[in-house]
Amino acid sequence: MISFLLSPLGRVLGALVGAAFITGIPWLHGYQRGAASERQAILTRSVEVLRQRSATDEKVRNMDDAGLCAALGGSILPDGSCQ
């Protein structure tokens, strides 16, 4: 085994394995950081959407019938007016 590692072919294969290791670790680290960053962005956007939805739900909940009809464009009534 030692004689193979000391042979020219063994040295070349060892250098290839070492180069793959040296370039693979930073690539893997960068990939994981990018994935974590993307997960954080998605989570932030989800929280923002939930806050907007909560504000919209509160507005709709506090509307009376005429206000809700007007917000919907009055198209639910046959004559198109909200009274």
Structure description:
The protein contains three helices and no strands. It is mainly α. It has one domain (2-71). The radius of gyration is 32 Å and the shape is rod-shaped.
Largest sheet features: none
Integer count of domains: 1
Total helical elements: 3
Low-confidence parts lasting 5 or more residues at pLDDT below 50?
none
The overall strand count is 0
Transmembrane segments: 12-31
Keywords: Membrane, Transmembrane, Transmembrane helix
Task: Spell out the blueprint of helices and strands.
Layout: H1 2-6, H2 8-61, H3 65-71
How do you describe this structure in short?
Helices cover 80% and strands 0% of the residues. The chain is an all-alpha fold.
